[in-house]
Design brief:
disordered N terminus, 6-stranded mixed sheet, mainly beta, globular, two-stranded antiparallel ribbon
């Protein structure tokens, strides 16, 4: 991401986040927490599967396949002032400044996910 693009994201106080994951998000910032409900739209990568030879374990033949990631499905065009939050795989494939994933996961004492520290950008 170039410096000018980063600066424009930092200085825009009217940003909107659209959660394009199937889960509500809790994003933990430097000065507070943001709860982001699901939008009802989910962006995903299309997947096809290449069938490989099965393996047999304890007499049970298990099919084995190789997933092949394809195009992004369900990702809208960029809109000024809107950050689209998607899975890390989709964000990395999109290579767009407006498409991000949840940042470092935060866990409770039992290992359950309780939120994410900010956002991650792959552009």
């Amino acid at each position: 991401m170039d410096g000018g693009a980063i600066d424009s994201l930092k200085t825009n106080s009217h940003m909107k986040i659209v959660n394009m994951t199937p889960h509500p998000l809790t994003l933990v910032g430097n000065n507070g927490t943001l709860n982001v409900p699901v939008s009802g739209q989910v962006a995903r990568l299309a997947v096809t599967r290449q069938i490989l030879a099965p393996v047999t374990v304890d007499g049970v033949e298990l099919p084995v396949n190789c997933p092949v990631l394809g195009d992004i499905v369900g990702l809208p065009d960029p809109q000024t002032g809107v950050i689209l939050v998607v899975s890390a795989l989709v964000a990395e494939a999109a290579e767009r400044l407006d498409v991000m994933s949840p940042g470092e996961l935060l866990r409770d004492e039992n290992g359950g996910i309780i939120g994410a520290k900010g956002l991650s950008s792959y552009a």
